[in-house]
Design goal:
The protein is 45% helix and 9% strand. It is of the alpha/beta class.
């Protein structure tokens, strides 16, 4: 493989006077043009599908015929093309800002939602991607005209080898009448990973480009959540666009530059997660410890899954007085900790487990179901598709999509279904458990004196952050085993849907021996990662110890692109000794992983030997 590049210290970035280095080339490719059509089908057959953006990718290498998530070759190609168009939109928007002082909030908002739609398990509806591409073209055209109206030259399109054979993203124009599903699928194969791999000739560099792209995807998703909650920051969106546009420039041929830009994505994501926390707490209040039951009550019912708390709020408002009970699923569980949401008496409890169990959970739910964001799965034929509704960026073929929080059809479906009967509610209640949520930043900081006292007295010897994403692989039982084998002098911080590996069996972790501190502390969704970071920073200030010297071990379970963004934020902060599993990202080659190991001492989780991993983490604590 290529020699391992040297890297700068954490926090350093490469400054460039411009990301656009050469004059634009006149480039317009008609989708239906004779120049493209003859070889398009042959190219599709030669390259096919390739996707390795998530942890569950086939054989740890890449999905090549159909995604493990369920997405088809057609959808994968359209997602690749949409990302390509968004690289172009990013370049045009950054140029408009830098050269002409133009800020376009509509394009910024669209960018975040559109790239969010390409995350794992968000949108399986190919027709929606055609609309996204069409709208991206419209934004690019409008911004280009605004730049020209100011007498400023159009964006420069530098010559880079990984776009050979197709026009550069900054300069590619599409005729509106040519934006069709079949034509766009063919184009998607020309700009996907397989094509760029054949052109770039450096697997490590290609993977580092994808590290930026996936980090941007995750951070944009968080920013989109914040915007729906009323918090918008055009500068952070522009920073994400700048990072994506950077991958289209000659500077991105240098792995050092690419790693520096990846760290800047982590920095931007940190500020975005802070903005998201402000959006949630400003609207719903600060979470407080709250017990949540999985026992349903008799009556009509709606189940809400995903992450979007504003959708849940709107649904609670629209179902007031209807007699319909609302339940959370998956990562909506922490919603019960927010005072404003908890005040709705018909928010009754939680149903089911992590996202990957939804085909079982949704099949057994006797009401209507709303999927707000990732992670959605394609319903098995003949099951619950008629009861499922999507909203926002989510989409599934054959499932009704609701726009702008217009939940009338969802409510009507719930009223038409049987709901929980006396008997079915009693059966579910027989195996019900309770779980305490709501340990947000304010609650944790309020408990800081007790935590510090317990640490100082030697009663609390170590904190373990066991959280992140969950998935269907049996190897993820490792996280259950680690939590279950920890000594009673240890406390566990958890967040994200990985918490279900710790709570699904109703295990009572009790209290730290000799204290009133709970051993299991649920800090919320993956969207609440900022709170965990700030708690670590607060402990660092209170103890006078660097974050890396705190009695804290991080055992992180990752799955998709939001987790990539969070990881980049932790690396930007210089956090070291993170355990990552179940598998390391397939898009990072051994050389790229070696860089991260050398710089941050990232370690793979020892899935087959959880007890040994615990001993290593405890030993690391003794060495600090």
């Amino acid at each position: 493989g290529p020699s391992r590049p040297t890297v700068r210290k954490s926090g350093e970035t490469t400054m460039m006077t411009s990301i656009f280095l050469r004059p634009p080339a006149a480039a317009a490719l008609r989708v239906g043009s004779p120049a493209l059509a003859p070889g398009a089908v042959l190219l599709r057959r030669a390259l096919g599908m390739f996707c390795y953006q998530c942890e569950q990718t086939t054989h740890g290498e890449g999905c090549k015929t159909v995604g493990v998530c369920g997405k088809t070759e057609e959808t994968a190609a359209l997602q690749d093309l949409l990302v390509y168009r968004l690289k172009g939109l990013a370049g045009v928007t950054v140029h408009a800002n830098d050269a002409a002082g133009i800020v376009d909030p509509a394009a910024n908002h669209f960018f975040k939602g559109a790239i969010f739609s390409t995350l794992t398990n968000v949108n399986f509806d190919s027709s929606r991607f055609v609309e996204y591409v069409r709208e991206a073209n419209e934004h690019m055209d409008r911004i280009s005209r605004a730049v020209a109206a100011k007498g400023v030259p159009t964006v420069e399109a530098p010559d880079v080898p990984w776009f050979s054979g197709v026009p550069h993203p900054f300069a590619w124009t599409m005729a509106p009448e040519d934006v069709t599903l079949s034509g766009l699928e063919d184009l998607g194969h020309q700009v996907g990973i397989e094509k760029r791999r054949s052109l770039i000739g450096n697997e490590t560099l290609l993977g580092l480009h994808e590290l930026i792209t996936y980090g941007v995807k995750g951070a944009a998703a968080y920013s989109h959540h914040a915007a729906l909650g009323g918090k918008v920051d055009e500068e952070s969106t522009l920073a994400l666009m700048r990072a994506l546009a950077f991958t289209c420039t000659p500077a991105a041929a240098d792995p050092n530059n690419v790693l520096a830009m990846a760290m800047s994505v982590g920095e931007t994501n940190l500020s975005i997660m802070g903005m998201l926390e402000e959006a949630h707490t400003g609207r719903f209040g600060h979470p407080a410890p709250t017990q949540v039951s999985t026992a349903p009550v008799e009556g009509k019912a709606i189940l809400v899954s995903g992450h979007d708390l504003t959708d849940l709020e709107a649904l609670l408002q629209q179902t007031e007085g209807t007699g319909i009970s609302v339940y959370t699923h998956g990562e909506m569980l922490p919603a019960h900790g927010y005072p404003v949401l908890r005040a709705y008496p018909h928010l009754k409890g939680h149903f089911g487990g992590a996202w990957y169990r939804q085909k079982i959970d949704f099949s057994h739910f006797p009401g209507a179901i709303l999927m707000t964001t990732n992670c959605v799965l394609d319903p098995p034929q003949g099951t619950y598709a008629d009861n499922l509704f999507t909203t926002g960026e989510t989409g599934v073929v054959g499932v009704q999509h609701l726009k702008e929080k217009a939940f009338g059809p969802l409510i009507a479906r719930a009223q038409a279904l049987e709901g929980f009967t006396v008997e079915s509610a009693a059966r579910a209640a027989a195996s019900a458990v309770t779980h305490t949520v709501g340990f947000g930043r304010e609650a944790m900081l309020g408990a800081a004196p007790a935590v510090l006292d317990a640490i100082g007295e030697g009663k609390l010897k170590r904190l373990f952050l066991i959280g992140g994403c969950d998935g269907s692989e049996g190897s993820r039982r490792y996280y259950t085993q680690v939590a279950g084998k920890l000594p009673d002098s240890a406390a566990i911080l958890t967040l994200g849907c990985a918490k279900f590996r710790l709570i699904s069996d109703g295990v009572d972790y009790g209290k730290v021996k000799g204290t009133e501190l709970p051993r299991l502390i649920d800090m919320g969704q993956c969207n609440d990662s900022f709170a965990a970071v700030q708690v670590a920073v607060a402990l660092s200030k209170a103890t006078g110890l660097p974050v890396n010297d705190l009695p804290l071990s991080m055992d992180i379970s990752w799955f998709e692109q939001k987790a990539v963004a969070v990881l980049l934020s932790l690396l930007h902060l210089g956090v070291t000794d993170i355990r990552l599993g179940p598998a390391l990202p397939a898009f990072l080659t051994p050389d790229a992983v070696g860089i991260l190991v050398d710089k941050f001492n990232i370690k793979p989780a020892d899935l087959k030997h959880p007890q040994e991993d615990i001993e290593r983490m405890l030993q690391e604590g003794q060495q600090q």
